[in-house]
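We emphasize that the prediction below concerns an isolated chain of 423 residues; any contacts that depend on oligomerization or on bound cofactors are therefore not represented. The input was used exactly as deposited, without trimming of termini.
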Amino acid sequence: MKNAVEFLRERECIDAVTSEELAEHVDKPVSVYIGFDPTADSLHLGHLVGVVTLCHFIKRGHTAYFILGGATAKVGDPSGKKTERPLLSQDTIETNARAITEQLKKCLEGEDQSRARFLNNASWWDSFSFLSVLRDIGKHFRMGPMLGKDSVRTRLQSEEGLSFTEFSYQVLQGYDFHHLAKEEGVSLQMGGSDQWGNITAGIELHRKLTGKSLFGLTYPLLTKSDGTKFGKTEEGTVWLDASKTSPFHFYQYLVRVADEDVLCLLKRLTFLPIQEIKELEIEMLGGSMEPFKAQKILAKEVTQFVHGKKGMEVALKVTQLLSPGSKTELDGELLKEVKNYIPVQTFARHAVVGFSYVDLSVKAGLYKSKGETQRAIKAKGAYLNNNRVDESSYLISDLDIIDHRYLLLGAGKKKKLLIELEE
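Result of the prediction step, given as a token string:
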């Protein structure tokens, strides 16, 4: 088995390393970390590169540290930001950190849990006073290198400028690396390419304080071939939290990825063997690949990693159900998910059971009139629970109610409407 660095290079997952000795360093088990600031109550698609990268290290016998930035989130990382982040309350940060920790643990359900560690940097920063930070840590940072960081230079040249609070962020993250090296034996920090300055700040601080070397590795940010960020839609961010971006919408975002981007995402966001990805590339370039084959593989693999097998199956079932002419077997859980994507009408049970399909369809707004409904039935285009309705006199019974609550009406192969009974 190739070591972690060689493996990541083959998958084009490395942007830069601080030393070429890193490849040899990871030939033996090491401890590695990535930080996640809880500035929201969910990670988004862009964070997934880091999570997957840590999992690659776990699979190769290393120990992965997932560091929640309970302290650094109070300051806000200026990297890649045009304006200063709004300050969050302590309660909000703690709530966000708990939610993100649960997300990360869910992604790791298929991994060796004994090789995953979860820490919050507030556990060591909360004991520091402002003066002790200036005296014991700040004196080791020189203004020249700090001002030379890309994120700092960019913001200093902007109209808004850069606050001292944000400017100090690299001091906090730099000390995090030193603390983790000293207390946990961590020797490698990883992050997106925009984290290079923060990572090297920690390496330099540790060298000054101990005389010992540490390593850094950055991976490319998740961007499309046109340079824009992945994980952004007209509706907003693609979150990992199912309550913010449903498994169906998550799956749909990935299945619509452009051909020129899908191979890159397969390398960076999945655990598919590189040989399988190369075979897909040959098939794609040769013009013999069926439409969206690679995208469907990507969407299935990543959705299952984030939302589990059950979430992936729901996403596939909803996709199939909403496809024209679907014959998907229905159940209450599936229809509960579907109601987020199609029109829903709510009725009391006594207003549904015993009524004709024709009357109910008009009352629910599926058809404009009884005549239109009857013509649809004659044309074999009226559906109840994915089954064709053949008689205008058909009456709705308790047996038609799915999970004691739902009915799915259909007009033709595309138009669907869900009826939900009041509890």
